[in-house]
Design a protein that fits this description.
The protein is mainly α. The chain contains 23 helices and five strands.
Length: about 675
């Protein structure tokens, strides 16, 4: 039999797989939600922005000066002729000055950069929390909480340095979080670059508001030291690199100013010896903690009672306290529940360490500092509160099957509702029904959250949404009221106008510890001084807290032959000088700086300026020499005012006393 060999079987071709269906990315929906959040934030921060006018005339005048003179821009001078600087480092002024240089001087060109910084802060916090949790919802919640914090709405619609400070510090926290991630297995390995960026951003924050920027350093360093997945020696080395980056970013300007000959630069406002180092360490440094601030308008203990409950008192509570207890509860609980979850848990713990450390160090400093303190400083707490609420709530929600986790969610919700009731009750007749709605919804949601593990998925989500609505209703109402109210002066506060608009403790406007006496003028409550005439509809000489408001006739007088003089006028105190400068867009010398207590210029220097024909007018009124005790500056401004009064003829223009220094002494 012949055996027939069969050809080997050809394996069948595998079936052609169907064309892969592109996975639907979760990003489009998230991007729409994020765009909605940022658009809503922009509307909240930009709507009716021009109604606040110059907002804080002290900084607005420096912005105007910087838009006219690059020297004034660099130093942060109060006037374009650079007689004296503001009492802060100038970085926050630069975006506004560039805007005014491009678009001209107006309320909008002054304040829009601040609002845009607020929108950027919300976007950056969203990104930081999303990276920490991996949850788009948590990122959106953090951004919404920050956007709707009343004091944040206030500061991102105002021209104080705090807006840029918050943005830069959020950036530093984000960079630190990225540095921790970069050390993980599969990370980018660029940890030191991210950490150096974080240090540089803190340095820039120092150039914005000096030593306050350093309050976040313990939290950033601790998070990297504990959670970076590299050997300890490398962690220490990376932190030293970040420290070096901070010194370079924050120190270059200080070094230039310190080395610049004092004779050719402006006097350093806020210091008593024309030194940026003295300003940094004294008036704006340790003096804020101890209350020992030379040239200050308030002595030790003059800024309200200190203590652990300071952030919840009648002046400050409505600014920031709404979610503060919940942030602490959720943040600590989140640390516990994130343990043992590998690198994901490590990332969450690192994030919570950053924000908890930020909140605790900054909050305790604000609670116990004995020096100058204003309610709007608490905007520095808003990012930490927002991040902790979002990360903590997300972490506990993922563990809601646990009785402890659901119980803590319920406790935080009930605590927030109770606090909201108290804060809204302080508003008196302002929407009195709101506190009952918030309390009812909040406590009902808390009860449901305690048993959320037994509810269907959709019902559980509805309960969570109800809890968020209850938690955010109070601050949202205050934020809307803040955006609807014009804010001017040196000490703005958030909330409904029925709160007084000045947030004053003990009935004193603006939280000021008393009045000040102006050379040649009279004392007004809270330091707002005038020359004593103050006719209705006339000009106002301004004072310690408010800028001067000249009529058209007075502004026209000051502008006469302006090109023939270095300064068209001089006035005691920066706010008094600011209004005249903003009205004329010509340099006005601020004698004595913000408080009228800086020794700039001396009487001899002022006489020399007058003799050389550099100052046209002296305007009476303004602030005196401060209340922090005798100072060279206080005696200098008083001596100048007395010499002018004795040597020149006075005339009254629309209620303000003016001396023409070009006529010669009598």
């Amino acid at each position: 039999m012949t055996t027939q060999t069969l050809p080997p079987a050809v394996p069948a071709a595998p079936p052609t797989p169907p064309a892969p269906t592109p996975a639907r990315s979760p990003w489009p929906r998230e991007r729409v939600a994020l765009a909605g959040l940022l658009a809503g934030t922009a509307v909240l921060y930009l709507w009716g922005l021009g109604s606040s006018g110059w907002a804080n005339s002290f900084y607005a005048a420096a912005v105007q000066a910087g838009s006219e003179s690059w020297k004034a821009f660099f130093f942060g001078s109060s006037d374009a002729a650079s007689s004296i600087t503001v009492d802060k480092t100038p970085l926050s002024l630069w975006p506004m000055a560039l805007s005014v240089r491009v678009f001209g001087l107006s309320s909008w060109s002054l304040l829009v950069p601040q609002a845009l910084e607020g929108v950027a802060a919300v976007a950056l916090l969203h990104a930081a929390v999303r990276r920490t949790t991996g949850s788009a919802a948590a990122g959106l919640l953090a951004g919404a909480v920050l956007a709707l914090t009343p004091v944040a709405v206030l500061m991102f619609r105002f021209d104080n340095p705090d807006a840029l400070l918050v943005l830069l510090l959020i950036g530093a926290a984000y960079a630190t979080q990225r540095a921790v991630e970069a050390t993980a297995p599969g990370g980018t390995g660029r940890a030191v670059r991210w950490l150096a960026l974080g240090g540089a951003l803190v340095g820039l924050a120092f150039l914005t508001k000096m030593l306050q920027a350093f309050l976040v350093l313990p939290a950033l360093a601790l998070a990297y030291a504990l959670f970076a997945a590299v050997p300890w020696r490398r962690r220490i080395g990376h932190l030293l690199v970040a420290f070096g980056a901070m010194l370079v970013a924050g120190g270059w300007w200080v070094a230039i100013v310190q080395l610049w000959p004092a004779s050719s630069r402006p006097y350093i406002g806020g210091s008593q010896d024309n030194s940026i180092l003295e300003l940094t360490l004294g008036y704006n440094g340790f003096g804020r903690l101890t209350g020992d601030e030379s040239g200050s308008v308030g002595g030790n203990g003059g800024w309200g009672a200190t203590g652990i409950l300071r952030l919840f008192d009648s002046e400050i509570g409505g600014q920031i306290a709404w979610l503060l207890p919940a942030a602490l509860v959720l943040g600590v609980a989140g640390l516990w529940f994130a343990r043992g979850r590998g690198m994901d848990g490590r990332r969450v713990q690192a994030g919570l360490t950053i924000w908890l450390g930020w909140l605790l160090v900054t909050g305790l400093t604000f609670s116990f500092m004995a020096g100058i303190f204003h309610a709007y400083y608490t905007v520095a707490l808003a990012p930490a509160v927002a991040a902790l609420v979002a990360i903590g709530a997300h972490t506990l929600w993922r563990h809601r099957e646990s009785l402890v986790a659901s119980g803590l969610l319920a406790f935080a919700t009930a605590l927030t509702a109770a606090l909201a009731f108290v804060l809204l009750d302080r508003a008196g007749d302002w929407h009195p029904w709101l506190k009952y709605v918030v309390a009812t919804l909040g406590f009902a949601a808390a009860l449901m959250l305690a048993g959320v593990r037994h509810l269907p998925r959709r019902a559980g989500r509805a309960v969570a949404v109800s809890a968020l609505v209850a938690a955010l209703a109070g601050p949202t109402a205050y934020s809307l009221a803040t955006a609807a109210t014009p804010h001017t002066g040196s000490i703005p506060t958030a909330g409904p106008s029925s709160q007084g608009g000045t947030g004053a403790p003990g009935g004193m406007p603006g939280g000021m510890p008393g009045g000040t006496t102006a050379p040649g003028g009279t004392t007004a409550p809270g330091g707002a001084t005038q020359d004593g005439t103050g006719a209705a509809g006339g000009s106002s000489a301004g004072g310690l807290l408010d800028g001067s408001t000249p009529t058209a006739a007075l502004a026209s007088l000051l502008s006469t032959d302006a090109d023939a003089y270095t300064w068209v006028a001089a006035a005691v105190g920066s706010n008094s000088a600011a209004g005249y400068q903003l009205a004329t867009e010509e340099p006005v010398m601020a004698i004595g700086g913000f408080n009228g207590s800086d020794p700039s210029p001396t009487l001899a220097q002022f006489k020399a300026y007058v003799a050389d024909g550099e100052i046209h007018y002296f305007i009476a009124g303004g602030t005196g020499g401060g209340m922090g005790g005798p100072s060279a500056g206080g005696s200098s401004s008083s001596a100048i005012a007395a010499w002018v009064q004795a040597s020149f003829e006075a005339k009254t223009v629309d209620g303000v006393t003016v001396y023409d220094l070009s006529t010669g002494t009598r």
